[in-house]
Each structure stands twice: as structure tokens, then as C-alpha cells.
Automatic annotation (TrEMBL):
GO terms for molecular function: oxidoreductase activity; zinc ion binding. InterPro entries: ADH-like_C (IPR013149), ADH-like_N (IPR013154), ER (IPR020843), GroES-like_sf (IPR011032), NAD(P)-bd_dom_sf (IPR036291), Quin_OxRdtase/zeta-crystal_CS (IPR002364), Zn-ADH-like_protein (IPR051397). This is NADPH:quinone oxidoreductase family protein. It holds the Pfam family ADH_N. The lineage of its organism: Bacteria, Pseudomonadati, Pseudomonadota, Gammaproteobacteria, Oceanospirillales. Residues 10-322 form the Enoyl reductase (ER) domain. PANTHER family: QUINONE OXIDOREDUCTASE-LIKE PROTEIN 2, SHORT-CHAIN DEHYDROGENASE/REDUCTASE. It comes from the Bacteria. It comes from Aestuariirhabdus litorea.
Length: 324
């Protein structure tokens, strides 16, 4: 099979497109012929050695795939060859084939295209877990989403609306804000042209936001740390700006809000039943039209470097997908 290989932590252009042995389905595993693989911001960090997890090299990156089962290992009874599925794998997704534990693979309804299914996992599942398990978002609360036109930001806008929140979208351009608005955002803030703190104050009547889904870090986090409502929840999703901020903890004391870390990959391992239940709910919401996957662009597998660069440069509105 062909795959994208990270042979050493290095700049993205050092990734190679190589022939590797086909994977074999061991006990409790299935092999999936990959039709689509999602590209995520952490993928670019991972291969450069900049992520929290540092796997031994060489490895194949990629955490979310959709495709058809081609082989089933011993002890797997709920799946069979020929099934359309989506799967979560910590590594191995950027390839023509991938072996996964059957426990992380779910049947895929015919109504969901492979490209959209691959984009439904990490971005939407991160947002869903963050807003449901971590923030306990309630109908009628105010949800602010930074990077609201990116993959997981756009998912948070959709899921926030599905959960009954009033959604404030923060983006860096009018074009991106239009995408957020088309996906349900109620209030739009252009961070490149408007004062974020003042606009939040205006949008919330000076009360601050109940829940902030924060993917940017840096100055944006600094501002939000001063714009939270009493009993608010500031969700730490990532640091797309490149600067990991430091929190003046006295703000959490006097303003009475919580800062909550969101690490979806660990959640899937420590709370697998909750993860599966979340995915079933997401798939139902998709079929009901409450959420959707906006595919920005599909790239051939051999062009994975271009795909990752587009995500890392924050040029994406929705999801980027690889199609082996």
C-alpha cells in the first residue's frame, strides 16, 4: 500500500510518500480500505515534534478515516468485510489501508459520503465532547467560538446551535464570518477589524460569555480570560496562533469562571463508552440535518504536505480531506 511516512521529526516537506507492507488484522482488529482521511491541525504539529504526543519514528500520521472493511480479525463479531465504516486511530490514517481496533470503528450509514464521514470524527467529536462533557452547555447560554470557520470551530457553531445556545462567531475575515453565519452563528465579530473585548461586551450586555470555545490561544485567549461571565467555562482547545498563553489565575477567582482543558484523544481512550455514545448522537444529528461537514478541499494522498500546509496556515473554511 501507499502511505505518508514521517521518518523523523522535521519540517512538513520532509514527509515521504512510500510503499509500505499492507496491514494485517490481528485479534480484535479490522483492516479498512481508506476512502477518505481527515486532516487536522495537530497532524502538522505531530510530524514536526511539536505536539504533546511524540510517537517513535517512523510512523504514518492521521487520526480519522472512513472506508470499507477488507479484513476482520479473530474475535470481531459486530463488523464484517464490505461494511462501510468510520474509525479513529491515533496514527496510521494517511494511507491506503489501516488496521484499527474494532472497538474504535463504527458502521457508517449509506447517506453519509466517505469524505464527509472522515471530517465528522475529530473536529465535530472534539466540539461535541467539549460542549457536552466539559462545558455542560445549556440551552439559552451564550457560546463564543474563536476560529469559527475552521474545521472544529465550525463544528462548535453547529453543535452549539443544536444544543440551543446563542452563538457568537469570531473570525479573521468577512469571508470566514459569512461561512460561520451560514452554519448558524447569531453574532459575528471580525477580529481583524473590531475590538474583541468591546464587541463581546456589546453582544452580551456586559455580562460576558457563558462558554468560550477557544482554539487560537495567544492574544485571543488573553482577551477572553477577561470576558467570561460568572460561572462561565473557558474551554482550552488549541493554540493555532502559535503562542501558548499564561493565565492570570486571579481572574478566575474574582470573575468566578472555570478553565477547562479539552483533549479529545485521551477522552476516547479513558471514556470509550461516552465516546461511542457521542458519535452515535452526532451521526443522528447529521441525518437530521442539525450538523453537517463542510469540505473545503480534497487532496490526493500524495499531496498530503499541501493539505497539511493549508490547515496549518489557517486558510481553511471547514475540513480538508485526503483521498487515497
Amino acid at each position: 500500500m501507499k502511505a505518508i511516512l514521517c521518518e523523523a521529526f522535521a519540517p512538513l516537506d520532509q514527509l515521504t510518500y512510500k510503499e509500505l507492507p499492507d496491514p494485517v488484522a490481528r485479534k480484535g482488529e479490522v483492516v479498512i480500505d481508506v476512502a477518505a482521511a481527515g486532516v487536522n491541525f495537530p497532524d502538522g504539529l505531530l510530524v514536526q515534534g511539536l505536539y504533546q504526543m511524540k510517537p517513535p519514528c517512523p510512523f504514518v500520521p492521521g487520526t480519522e478515516i472512513a472506508g470499507t472493511i477488507s479484513a476482520v480479525g479473530e474475535g470481531v463479531n459486530h463488523l464484517k468485510a464490505g461494511d462501510r465504516v468510520v474509525g479513529v486511530t491515533m496514527l496510521g490514517g494517511y494511507a491506503e489501508k489501516a488496521a484499527l481496533p474494532a472497538s474504535t470503528v463504527m458502521p457508517l450509514p449509506d447517506a453519509i459520503p466517505f469524505e464527509e464521514a472522515a471530517g465528522l470524527i475529530t473536529a465535530h467529536a472534539t466540539a461535541h465532547h467539549a460542549l457536552k462533557q466539559r462545558a455542560n452547555l445549556q440551552a439559552g447560554e451564550t457560546l463564543l467560538v474563536t476560529g469559527a470557520a475552521g474545521g472544529t470551530g465550525l463544528a462548535a457553531v453547529q453543535i452549539g446551535k443544536a444544543m440551543g445556545a446563542r452563538v457568537i462567531a469570531v473570525c479573521s475575515s468577512a469571508e470566514k464570518l459569512a461561512v460561520a453565519q451560514a452554519n448558524g452563528a447569531d453574532v459575528l465579530i471580525n477580529a481583524s477589524e473590531q475590538d474583541l473585548k468591546e464587541e463581546i461586551k456589546k453582544a452580551t450586555g456586559g455580562q460576558g460569555v457563558d462558554v468560550a470555545y477557544e482554539v487560537v490561544g495567544g492574544d485571543t485567549f488573553d482577551t477572553l480570560s477577561r470576558c467570561m461571565a460568572w460561572n462561565g467555562r473557558l474551554l482550552v482547545i488549541g493554540f493555532a496562533s502559535g503562542r501558548i498563553p499564561e493565565l492570570p489565575v486571579n481572574l478566575t477567582l474574582v470573575k468566578g469562571y472555570a478553565v477547562l482543558g479539552v483533549f479529545w484523544g485521551t477522552f476516547t481512550q479513558k471514556q470509550p463508552k461516552d465516546f461511542i455514545a457521542n458519535m452515535m448522537e452526532l451521526i443522528q444529528w447529521y441525518l437530521q440535518g442539525k450538523v453537517k461537514v463542510v469540505v473545503d478541499q480534497c487532496f490526493p494522498l500524495e499531496n498530503a504536505v499541501d493539505a497539511i500546509n493549508k490547515v496549518m496556515n489557517r486558510q481553511v473554511m471547514g475540513k480538508v480531506i485526503l483521498t487515497p
